[in-house]
Each structure stands twice: as structure tokens, then as C-alpha cells.
UniProtKB/TrEMBL annotation:
It holds the Pfam family rhaM. It comes from Paeniglutamicibacter terrestris. Coiled coil: none annotated. Transmembrane segments: none annotated. InterPro entries: Dimeric_a/b-barrel, Rham/fucose_mutarotase. It comes from the Bacteria. Gene3D superfamilies: 3.30.70.100. This is L-rhamnose mutarotase.
Length: 113
């Protein structure tokens, strides 16, 4: 299992609308995300537009391909791309991924008593 964290920058003038859109994501988009293999998916938004996303997945590349090929995702991703600063293409494919430097469970599993 992989833990994936990413960041994007929402345009400040569109933060309220972005938040509103994510209060009720289209059911077909929710199903497409689930069907791709992503789980425990969350988005966190700071009031200056910094967006941090997190999800868990068994094969991130396969999940990415599944979302790219799924006809349920294209319209949503096209609409969402308008909300971001300096983004070329689909947000789900062009977000900057962050490197994990600490995980409590991983370290606890390595501790011997």
C-alpha cells in the first residue's frame, strides 16, 4: 500500500466556489475514484488556497491510468482545472506529489521492546 500526498494552489478568488463544489462531488466521480483503487482520500484547504490532498492506493500508476481512461472523470477534471494556479492539464495528473518523511505506524512497527 502506498500513501500519496500532493499539493495544488487554488486561485484565491475561487476558494469559496471550490469548497462549495467539493461539498457534494458528483456521485459518478466518487465512484470513479473508488473504482480506481484510491481510498481514504481527503483534501485539506488553507485559507490562502494551498490545497493538500492525501489518499492510499495499492498501485498509484494503475489508479492514475484508470482515472484517465474513465469517461466519468473527464468533465469533472476539466472543470476543476480552472480553479488552480499554474496548472497545465488535469489536476489529478499534474499535482506536485510530496515526499513522506515520517509515518507513526511504520516507525512503531520497527521498534523492538
Amino acid at each position: 500500500m502506498s500513501r500519496v500526498c500532493f499539493q495544488l494552489q487554488v486561485r484565491e478568488e475561487r476558494i469559496a466556489e471550490y469548497t462549495e463544489r467539493h461539498a457534494s462531488v458528483w456521485p459518478q466521480m466518487l465512484e470513479a475514484i473508488k473504482d480506481s483503487g484510491r481510498r481514504n482520500y481527503s483534501l485539506f484547504l488553507r485559507n490562502d488556497g494551498l490545497l493538500i490532498g492525501y489518499y492510499e492506493v495499492d498501485d498509484d500508476a494503475a489508479a492514475q491510468r484508470a482515472l484517465d481512461a474513465d469517461p466519468r472523470t473527464a468533465d469533472w477534471e476539466a472543470q476543476m482545472s480552472e480553479f488552480f494556479v499554474s496548472l497545465a492539464g488535469r489536476p489529478d495528473q499534474n499535482a506536485q506529489q510530496l515526499t513522506e518523511v515520517f509515518n507513526l505506524e511504520d516507525q512503531l512497527a520497527g521498534v523492538t521492546h
